[in-house]
Hints:
The chain has one helix and nine strands, in the order βββββββββα. The chain is mainly β and 178 residues long.
Amino acid sequence: MRYTDPQRTDVEAVLNLPFHDTLGVRIGGFVTDQNEGFVVNATTGNFMDAQRTSGGRLTAEARPVEGALFSLAWEYLDSETPGFDLGRNPALDPSPYVHANQNREEVVNIIENALTLRADFELDWADLSLRAARRERDGGRGRWRRRPLFGQLSHRCRRRSGCGVSRLRSRSIRNLRA
């Protein structure tokens, strides 16, 4: 476990489980939590770069015969990270870590799953290797998950009337005035 400034905690763990001379499993995981950060929104006073990342990996490896290796690994990552624009405005920003004119404090939630299969064979005349992998990644907007992203239809939008960008903007402007 590691604690660093400003208000950041890191936890990592790995466990190796040998079941036999020819079979083993490794389980690993980590969590990184940064409650505050370095960048402050001058308008709201909120920290804009708070983030949390967690993940894990499970690997099974077998060596059934001399010269053969089979491995199967699954990885998971869940990252909640800042999704704001880091464009600086030196004329308005009082310091490098305080930003004025930030129009949003958005969080990007990235979820990733990966599966990897590996087979290696050492023969007298050659070394053969097989690698196969599948990765799925979702990089959606965390705090705005309930609102439709541009180009997507919401459950409140009808296909006949459409739900264009201008219509979304006019709705949000009306909601701000109310």
